[in-house]
Design a protein that fits this description.
Blueprint: E1 8-12, H1 16-28, E2 32-36, H2 39-48, E3 51-57, H3 65-70, E4 77-83
Parallel strand pairs: 1-2, 1-3, 3-4
């Protein structure tokens, strides 16, 4: 974790604008936020780094948020949070 951050968050959303907004907002709040638009890239990051929270879109092309959150090869996120897709009522 970089000096001064209050936690490390991995954000995954195929909507680039939403991913960027989340990364910027969380960074301003003092978190070390890293964002990806592809589930495959997020899994690679999870395998190589430790994160406190995974914030992911559930429905994405390719590997989606359900796969990211449940991947047994990605145990380094100590907390996991799945975000429903925009417009979802679930």
């Amino acid at each position: 974790m970089m000096d001064g951050s209050i936690g490390k968050i991995l954000i995954v959303d195929d909507e680039v604008e939403l991913k960027n907004i989340l990364v910027e907002a969380l960074t301003r709040q003092g978190y070390e936020a890293t964002g990806f638009t592809a589930g495959e890239d997020a899994l690679a990051a999870l395998r190589g780094q430790e994160f406190d929270v995974l914030l992911t879109d559930l429905m994405m092309p390719g590997i989606d948020g359900r796969a990211d959150a449940g991947d047994e090869h990605a145990p380094s996120a100590s907390g996991k949070c799945a975000a429903p897709r925009s417009g979802s009522n679930s």
